[in-house]
Design a protein that fits this description.
Order of helices and strands: HHHHH
Radius of gyration: 12 Å
Number of helices: 5
Largest sheet: none
Structural class: mainly alpha
Helix content: 55-70%
Length: 92
């Protein structure tokens, strides 16, 4: 896999956002993890939503985002809330 868009859930739009955030390869995304990738995207795009985080986690795990376990989805919701609070604070 050489392109981010080769991963599940990563279309051309999300791939462009990842690249703009400094994440240029599937390996780099895997090493950073979904939460760090989301945080980087969120700094560039304040409209990034929970589904973006789900997509990134699914890509890291190699599954479609709707197949993520419910426990993982709950963890991501909590992380999403934390990341958005931190981003909101750093903007002001």
């Amino acid at each position: 896999m050489s392109k981010l868009s080769d991963l599940p859930n990563i279309g051309h739009v999300l791939e462009a956002k990842l690249i703009a955030s400094g994440i240029k390869s599937p390996l780099q995304l895997m090493e950073l993890g979904s939460r760090e990738a989301y945080a980087r995207i969120r700094k560039q795009d304040s409209s990034a939503c929970l589904h973006t985080l789900y997509a990134l986690e699914g890509a890291v795990q190699g599954v479609r985002s709707h197949l993520l376990p419910k426990s993982t989805q709950r963890e991501l919701i909590q992380e999403f809330k934390i990341l958005n609070q931190l981003t909101a604070c750093s903007i002001t």
